[in-house]
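Supplementary Methods S3. Complex input for the D-xylitol-5-phosphate-bound model.
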Amino acid sequence: TPRAIIAPSILASDFGKLSQECTTVIKQHGADWLHIDIMDGHFVPNITIGAPVVTCIRKDIEKEVVTHSNGEKVTKGFFDCHMMVAEPQRWIEDFKKAGCDLYCFHYEAADASQNPHTPPVQLIKDIHKLGMKAGIAVKPGTSVDVLWDILANEKEGEGRPDMVLVMTVEPGFGGQKFMHECMPKVAALREKYPDLDIEVDGGLGLSTIDTAAEAGANVIVAGTAVFGADSPGEVVAQLRAAVDS
Ligand code: DX5
Ligand code: ZN
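Predicted complex, serialized as structure tokens:
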């Protein structure tokens, strides 16, 4: 399994002082990425923020490449944008301009049954062309079987995703209960792709991290568990230790 990447979800932070919260969670609490939840009120029944707000926080957060003892590199301050939007193809340029590093769209929104739609592989190519990493997310009810053909693209230029996000709650809100039944999907992905970044999102915290780590997840999103903690730095460290041990 690749190294742990701890990505606090800023959805659980105080939006009134968002930029400060982001800086603190990285500089003081030791987080790696920022998980930025973008919701459009269509794909999910909630609205959060758009590219203009991402632009503002990008101004205050510099990126820094850190090399671990085993030689693996992690970029601190990397913006992991989780796009819970009905038309993911529509926002890629805006998000690139705003400073997004990884554009993670939902398979369900890029699926051929949607209209208008851009198929996942085309979307991944478009995201890569703009110089961002591409992620593909699946809701709890979506089988990983939809991903095998997409993951079979071996080269970046062919539309290979850089990360898969296995949702462990129904997307839309923070603070929900972790769904253990999603773990076989993580295990199936890890078995076939030992080096893939596999992200889990929803209900992750000290009581659920071991299950997720055992299944093979390495990119850990945590909103409430980090921002709601008395000692966020200890939570970040413990999440990391559970994955890296
Ligand atoms: C839910 C979002 C999550 C959420 C996680 O739709 O994608 O990123 O903020 O929050 P917690 O960690 O509180 O479940
Ligand atoms: Zn998310």
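Residues 9, 11-12, 35, 37, 82, 169, 171-176, 201-204, 221-225 surround D-xylitol-5-phosphate (ligand 1) (CB under 6 Å). The mean pLDDT is 95.
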